[in-house]
Structure formats: structure tokens, C-alpha cells
Write a structure and sequence with these properties.
This protein has 317 residues and is of the alpha+beta class. It is built from 8 helices and 12 strands. A hairpin with a 7-residue loop joins strand 3 and strand 4.
């Protein structure tokens, strides 16, 4: 009886993964189904585990279907494993910029740990999401390291902040056209390598309105980055995008986008959630072609459900 129950669970699990793999392609027709596309890596890992078990049980037809599903998910994930052409090692004496993004989480009370980590991070610029008034008060203590700050502490999830250790030509909050509370924090940093940084926090695609708003938000950010680049300034766009590289909105954003995804080549060093065995790639850092990626690092657990993301950049040769 136990053995029969085990085989039943195995078959049901396989059908669930195969079905989810197929449903992930239906996102253009119904927003809820696009959520299945967020978990391509999980499907891949699950099928790698299930295939030997199906072989052991001699479920040949189901095995064949699972092999096809494995190939489909490999085909989706494989392009992301290609490193960006601008990813190179550091060179002696070159000017580098370090940028940090972190979703603090509204209910996170580990302010001392957050401030200590940022202080020791060596980041030139820091962008933060879900900044509460308590977070903003704690972050103000960093003015000796980051004298240029825009702290937008709020009691909802729309709080944000941008910090810079270098002088800034402009720093503040830029709303999405037609909105007041949704937008991005931005700083025009006058570092040894002058650049503009956008700190974003996208809508969650867990409702019809949220999914539609995410498409609009991504299109706006793509346009803003293109405008800044056209003015001759390198751009860093980073924050909580609430989307993995396999979701529809993300894919549309990257088609013809004026920036490079620094998470290319990564599958396991993701940022959300700290409690999952495999974290999702939803916190991102995008860079304009003037940059090359020197290093990408995921920080420690600091009381949030996200982990910090740090990128080291240098100008392209």
C-alpha cells in the first residue's frame, strides 16, 4: 500500500511539473498563468530528481513526457546562463563603482544590522525599498559616510531611499507619469565616474491590475534609462522588480532594452526569499553598455525576506 501511494505521488508530481511547464506559455492570454513562468529553474530541478525515479518505476510514457518537459525548461533557462559580454575581471588601478540595492521589508526591525552592513559595504550608492519612518531615522545616522540622502519613509510598501557618498547633481523621487506614490528614487552621482542611478520597486504581478501596472512600469523605466543614456551618462537601474527573467513583463522589457542584465550567468545566487531552499531572481541590477560588470554579490540575511544585492562596475575599455 505504501509503495503504491509512493508511485501515485511520483506520477502526480510529474504531471504537476509538466502541466506547470506548459501553462507558463499561456501568460500572454491570461495574467495569472504567467505566474507559472517565474519558476522555470524549480521545474528544471524537480525534473532532474523525478526522471531517475520514473526510470526506476518503468513509467515509460510518463518518462518520455518528462524528458520533453526537461528539454523545454533547459531551452528557457540556458540563454540566461550566458554571461554578459561586459563581464570581466578587475584591472589594477581602474576606477570602479559599487552599487547596492536592498528591500528592507516593512516589518523588519533589525535597523542596527542594516545600518552596520551598509556602513561596511563600501558601496558608492545605495538604493532601498520598503523604507519605513523607523528605517529612515536609522539611515540618517549614515550621513557621515553617505552625506547625500533622499529618505522617503512611509508606513506602506512604497517607502524608498537613495544614499550617495559622492556629491550629487540631483537626488530625489521621480514619480511614474500620472502617479504620485509610484515611481523611482534617482540620483545623478558626481563620482570619479559620473553616472545616474535609479532605485525601483515594481508592482507585484499577483493581480490583474498589478500585472498590467508592471508592464507600464517596466516600459517607463526602459524609456527613462534610454533618455539618460542619450544625454551621455552611464546608467545603473536596480531594485526589487518582483519578476524573474522568464516572466512575460521581464522578457518584453529586455527586448531592445538599453541596458544589460547583471544576473546573466546566475541561477542560484538569488535574493528572495531567505526562507526558500532556492531563492528567486527578482532583485536585479541593470547597467548601460558603458559599464562592464566586475563582480556581483548577494549579501547576508538582515531580517528581511530579501537579501542585499551588490554589483561592482567599471567603465568598458
Amino acid at each position: 500500500m505504501i509503495r503504491q501511494a509512493g508511485w501515485f505521488v511520483l506520477q502526480l508530481s510529474t504531471l504537476a511539473v509538466v502541466g506547470s511547464t506548459c501553462l507558463a506559455y499561456a501568460g500572454p492570454w491570461y495574467w495569472r498563468l504567467d505566474l507559472f513562468a517565474q519558476f522555470r529553474v524549480q521545474y528544471l530541478a524537480a525534473l532532474v530528481v523525478l526522471l531517475p525515479l520514473l526510470l526506476l518505476g518503468r513509467w515509460w510514457k510518463l518518462l518520455a513526457v518528462a524528458v520533453v518537459a526537461l528539454g523545454v525548461n533547459v531551452n528557457e533557462v540556458l540563454p540566461h546562463l550566458q554571461l554578459p559580454a561586459t563581464a570581466t575581471l578587475a584591472e589594477a588601478g581602474e576606477q570602479r563603482v559599487r552599487c547596492l540595492t536592498f528591500n528592507l521589508l516593512q516589518k523588519n526591525a533589525e535597523n542596527a544590522a542594516i545600518v552596520g552592513f551598509i556602513r561596511q559595504s563600501g558601496a558608492d550608492t545605495v538604493v532601498l525599498q520598503e523604507v519605513t519612518p523607523a528605517h529612515a531615522e536609522a539611515l540618517a545616522d549614515l550621513r557621515d559616510v553617505y552625506p547625500h540622502q533622499h529618505l522617503r519613509g512611509r508606513r506602506d510598501s512604497k517607502g524608498a531611499a537613495v544614499l550617495s557618498r559622492h556629491p550629487v547633481r540631483r537626488i530625489g523621487f521621480e514619480p511614474l507619469p500620472g502617479q504620485e506614490q509610484i515611481g523611482a528614487v534617482v540620483a545623478e552621482v558626481e563620482a570619479p565616474v559620473p553616472f545616474t542611478v535609479f532605485g525601483v520597486h515594481s508592482h507585484k504581478p499577483t493581480s490583474a491590475a498589478g500585472a498590467a501596472a508592471q508592464h507600464v512600469y517596466f516600459a517607463w523605466q526602459t524609456q527613462r534609462c534610454a533618455e539618460v543614456q542619450a544625454a551621455g551618462r552611464p546608467v545603473v537601474l536596480m531594485g526589487d522588480f518582483n519578476s524573474t527573467p522568464w516572466a512575460l513583463a521581464f522578457r518584453r522589457m529586455m527586448k531592445g532594452a538599453p541596458f544589460i542584465d547583471t544576473s546573466r550567468g546566475e541561477l542560484v545566487r538569488a535574493t528572495w526569499s531567505v526562507n526558500l531552499p532556492y531563492r528567486l531572481l527578482i532583485d536585479h541590477a541593470f547597467i548601460s553598455p558603458e559599464w562592464r560588470l566586475v563582480r556581483r554579490e548577494v549579501g547576508p540575511d538582515l531580517g528581511s525576506d530579501h537579501r542585499p544585492l551588490i554589483v561592482d562596475l567599471a567603465l568598458s575599455r
